[in-house]
Amino acid sequence: MTSLKSQAGVSVLQALVAMLLFAFFLTVVLRLAPTYMEGRSVQATVQSVVDSSNISMSLGEVQKKLTNAFITNQIEAITVKDVKVYREKRVIIIDASYEDRTPLFDGIDAVLMFDNLKFEIE
């Protein structure tokens, strides 16, 4: 049988610090997850427009498809006016890159950058 002096456990202070760290990271994840998921939704929406378009379409037609897709998927993080659609060397480029600011705590914001949203229609 072991004595009480040789037994070790978590002190109250260590448990409090562990709970505070867990609460901090849980708060950060819960605040950033919706913004991140919206960014993934924007990426999937623009990719679906790219997949259903072809090079012979006009820029206006591509813009209209984007508008309809944004309305259908309820994209609110970015507007269609913020998406750049242009021709370059026989391809249509759709650049939907943006950044979103999310408040974490009082006076502290997190900026999520979605700069991998540049697609080509060939």
TrEMBL record:
<dbReference type="Pfam" id="PF16137">
    <property type="entry name" value="DUF4845"/>
</dbReference>
<keyword id="KW-0472">Membrane</keyword>
<keyword id="KW-1133">Transmembrane helix</keyword>
<protein>
    <submittedName>
        <fullName>DUF4845 domain-containing protein</fullName>
    </submittedName>
</protein>
<keyword id="KW-0812">Transmembrane</keyword>
<dbReference type="InterPro" id="IPR032314">
    <property type="entry name" value="DUF4845"/>
</dbReference>
<feature type="transmembrane region" description="Helical">
    <location>
        <begin position="12"/>
        <end position="33"/>
    </location>
</feature>
